[in-house]
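User: Hi! I'm working on a homework problem where we have to compare a predicted structure to a textbook description. Could you give me the structure for the chain below?
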Amino acid sequence: MTAPAPGTDGPSIRPRTAQHYSVAPLLDTPDGYVAPGMPGIPVTGYDPVSPAAPATAPRRRTALALPLALLAALLGGLAYGFAPLRAADSLGWLAIAQAGLIALPLGLLGGRNRLLPALGALLSAGALLLGQLTQRLRIVQTDSPGPHGLLHDTLSTWHADLRPLDVAFYAIALIGGFLLTRRTADRG
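Assistant: Happy to help. Predicted structure tokens:
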């Protein structure tokens, strides 16, 4: 039923050269090509199954992704640490934002390397730790301006102020860093 059927209703609106294929034709098929199994004489010298050009994999720049992710972890941790102290209780949820910031260079530039999601998880937890230690350092420094025992005082106040919610934030940073890095690599 590919030919125009003139009748009482007038000519058909189909073009006179309409063809039906058993499979969709390739885009670069020459005029007059008849699919295998269809009536007609196929064009000679045309091979529909020509080897395609080898698909090139996207170039991965893992060497560039690692320093950028480390820089993102440092910037995220310092931004967390230098946030206003009155908002310190609600800042733990920013572990997801830090994980996302770290996952971007690892996933997009690093690709689907199996080690990068684990590295993203560790860097996210490290950024959270750096942010909490920076906050405690600011608190200790405002309370006692002397430089003696500053690191010891910072670590002891951080350890004394740990709550179960902080452990949940570290779990969120680890899981978020892992999953976001893996998902970013799949999309990139």
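For your comparison, note the following. Residues 14-46 form one domain. DSSP finds five helices and no strands in the chain. Good luck with the assignment!
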